[in-house]
Batch of 2 targets.
Target 1
Amino acid sequence: MEIRYVRESRTYKTSRIFPTDVNNHNTLFGGKLMSYIDDIASISASKHCRQSIVTASTDSVDFLLPIRPTDSVCLESFVTWTGKSSMEVFVKVITEDLKSGKRDIAATSFLTFVALDENRKPVIVPQVIPETQEEIMLHESAKQRAEMRKFRREGSKEFSDHLQMKFPWE
């Protein structure tokens, strides 16, 4: 079985917050941050498996602090755990006040990606080996998140069976 270290998938992205990026509270629009998160997480997943990938789920995006126009926002992502063809990716969002230099964790997120072959069929991904304390902690707690993901997905499928697909004008 092929293995890779967490550090091999580690990816960073830093952005400035512009007036067009903020909402009516003058903080970064949540959808914009979610787009950044999916983008960087997909790069980490691709670096880990070196295959085409698809987002299977966004488990959570926890907005912890508002991100202001005076901040830069730095996203760090890496693969924390792998299944057979799936990869859990953790994204940490760090703000930095560009005047004072003060940094804070503004958000965290877990996403799952699946590796696909050229026929869009799932393929086996390398196992991941954590090294740092943070990586080990995330790796050791990943199995519990995977079980919650599976339970939530089954519930979502069951829930969707009860939803209508007709438009009101039909």
Note: Residues 75 and 93 are 5 Å apart (CA to CA).
Target 2
Amino acid sequence: MAARSALPATGPGPEAAGTAAGDPRRWLILAVIAAAQLMVVLDLTVMNLALPSAQRALNFTAADRQWVVTAYALSFGSLLLFCGRLADLIGRKVTFLTGLVGFAAASAVGGASVDFSMLVTARVCQGVFGALLAPSALSLLATTFKDPKERAKAFGVYGAVAAAGGGLGLLLGGALTSYLSWRWCMYVNLVFAATAITGGALLLGRQHRTPGGRLDVPGVVAVSGGMLCLVYGFSNAATHSWHTPSTWSFLVVGVALLIAFAAWQSRTAHPLLPPRVVLDRNRAGAYLTVLISGAGTFGVFLFLIYYMQVTLGYSAVVSGLAMLPMVALSGTVANLGNIRLMPRIGPKPMVIAGMLLNAAGMVWLTRIGVHSGYASALLGPLMVTGAGMGLIFGMMAATGTFGVAPYDAGVASASINTGQQLGGSIGTALLNTVAASAAAGYLADHSYGRPTPRLVQLAAIHSYTTVFWWCAGIFAAGAVICGALLRPGPLTRPGDATVREPSERATAAR
């Protein structure tokens, strides 16, 4: 017979007591968490615009360039669930501060890199400590704010940071690279980390470990290995081919390990990812929404930047400024959506509307041409897409952690980040393959002899518009699938029996 998951008999646990709803420090704690989260989100994109300069400075090849991004994704994505459960077991203040210190140290080493191997090693370490930091930050937020109205405001701020951080990373990366050096795309993390470390050490109360908790070592090995294989397989497909053994073999092994992990979680007494966390429809819908949205959003950032810089001739700084309307609107809508819409209508309508707005923005972007103007071809779809992203990010964090007991907050938070990371990896591989095939097909159909520069430009435009059509399809499918999974109506309040774990109900009955 399958062993039942062991649940502590202490109800919400001691961590809730340290951060009462009336604690006057809670808004300062929110500022610390937001600074830490912004640092992690920025780092997902800030290095993209610095890569050409780093390549020239350190003299590494174009084939090696992908590893500056992939090294971070591999370590970050494969360790998220492990680090999320670790935060639950040993205390979130410890993992939060350790993640900040380690991330800052790795950033300093990366900025001072003298060769390619040193830079890649620093990026791996950034991913490791980012995986420790990200779920700790979100779970601290989930356990700090108890009042529903204040909780909505706090998650609104968090959602705004998550929604706008990627675009801000592009803007900041372009400015730092253009006016200072690519190394400052790494050094800038020290500013955020110093602020968050100081605030976290002074403001966060003692976080006790989960009573009776144990680390699921087989689960750690299976899920970390599975995520590592999947992220590597998708990354390899983006630069090579789906048919190479280094792509499909890793994908097959990754899927097999994740299937084994899922089967093991229902049998072990101390699961790494307790089934009670993911079997709730709203939480599962939030995780799936993050994954699908991450896959589709990749087309907005990467291929739109390609279009603006390669085809329209925008500089890195101008490209970042061109993204500002989307960044500003996504952050504003995320904040308002969490405060105003979530308590009234719940996550389901927000996800459906957000996905459909993103799909509409992608369809609008298919009208771009070689000489399109910013106001006529880009501003409108960027604003529509920004509103859609804001609605999605406005519900993501609150829904993905709603109703979990404090001793599961870390792994629930990690599940959100895992979905985002895996979605981005899938989007990278899929959309890069689609773009390359579309460009090659266009040249084969329209060239007679050596392609002219004009024809190469048209082939690039065709590849971008094809990607945007695919993104529109991804978002439209997300509206249907995620909309069907999420429950209608507002989220049930934490005090209702429907969101209590069995041990909590027993404690309340006594």
Note: The longest helix spans residues 409-446.
